[in-house]
Amino acid sequence: MEATFKREATVRKQVFPLFYFLIFFAFGALFPLLSVYLQEEAQLPGAAIGWIMSLVSIVAMAAQPLWGAAADYTRKPVELLTVALGVAALFGLLYSLAGSYRVFVALTVLLSAVQSAIVPLSDSLALRHVHEQGGNYGAIRLWGSIGFAAAVLVVGWLSDHVAFAVIFYAFSLALLAALVLAARLPRYQAAPGRLTWLDVRGLLSVRPFCLLLVASFLLFGPIYANNSYFGLLIHELGGTLTGIGFAFWLAAGSEAPFMKTADRLIRRFGMTRLLVLAALVSAARWWSYVADPPLWFVYITAIVQGCSVGLAIPTALQYVRRLAPDGVQATAVSLYAATSSGLGAWFCTLAGGYLLERWQIGAVYVFFGVCTIAGALVLIWLGKVEKTTESAGEKG
């Protein structure tokens, strides 16, 4: 018994944090600079860049629910995660060889189909581990922010001083290292029975869960789309590739302390209030970028991301777990991911590409601000629905 307890403590304190560090290091190495690579190296126009970047989200929107359903059906999420890591690393290397628009499109589709499984499956495993063994999900997830921050700083400097293609090599190497570590992730006893369509219908009939999906679309869509356009904003304001990496480092690094305290803040203020706060902070940040602010101001406001994203990510994921019935946890997390980092990010990235080409980068952030305010209103509605449901339950 004591040996088992020590093994679970090791998983929580060492394996999960390092695993999250590696997968988000991979994402931080590639995605923040990919739009700049397509513009500077591939010489693609703004609309083409917006379309390619939005493909990541389009494919994720379709693939993530399938990965989640497969995990709930097979009850083998670790094995599926291992496959996704290996194939994504392969496509990342192939991406560095692309030289035409059509090849970029094809490889983006293939890479996104497997890469989109990594975070939802990892999150469902981490949430279950915390639920079964205790601990703090935010304290695990913050290592993802640290990994992302380290990648944008280190790989940003390397791409500026060595070669731009290093973003693809760093992405693939980090995923291969995570693949090796995945063998040590916990495997829990499968729940009885298989996932059925009735289980999915039951999940989608939960009204607060559906409202949370709508709010996630509006709140996280601009947040994830910003990863595609933030580098272009800094570039237009005169920043270098190293400067872009530094800004992403500030933004991602500031998330860690907020993620660590998210559980305590949830217990004190509630999930809905925290998400509304995160939405309002994000909206203020987007609106501040509208009128071509000075570069130093952009660097300073990047730190604001800690309060918005650092609170929103762990709070929303734990909200999803609380609302979802047992047996469909991986499906629920995947639907949430497909709605936020899939559909929401696709819509905001694609719309941003057309706004960028027709007007300027400021128009992109006007759109982001409007979406985020709408998301805050939906969250307020969600809070009222939950209060009404709780009151009805108490009377019953």
What is the helical fraction, as a range of percent?
over 70%
CATH homologous superfamily heading? MFS general substrate transporter like domains
What spatial form do the alpha-carbon principal axes imply? globular
Distance between the termini: 43 Å
Strand content: under 5%
Total separate domains: 1
Q: Quick check: average pLDDT? A: 81
The biggest beta sheet reads: none
Q: For this structure, what is the CATH class?
A: Mainly Alpha
CATH topology: Growth Hormone, Chain: A
Low-confidence stretches: 1-5
Rg result: 20 Å
Q: Kindly report the oligomeric state of this protein.
A: single chain
List SSEs in N-to-C order. Answer: HHHHHHHHHHHHHHHH
Tell me the number of helical segments per DSSP (H or I, 4 or more residues long).
16
Supply the CATH architecture.
Answer: Up-down Bundle
Number of strands: 0
Protein name: MFS transporter
Subcellular location: Cell membrane
Keywords: Cell membrane, Membrane, Transmembrane, Transmembrane helix, Transport
Pfam families: MFS_1_like
Explain the overall architecture.
The chain is 85% helix and 0% strand. It has 396 residues and is mostly helical. The chain has one domain (8-182, 202-395): Up-down Bundle (Growth Hormone, Chain: A). The radius of gyration is 20 Å and the shape is globular.
Features:
mainly alpha, 396 residues, Growth Hormone, Chain: A, disordered N terminus
Concise account of the structure shown:
This protein is an all-alpha fold and 396 residues long. The chain has 16 helices and no strands.
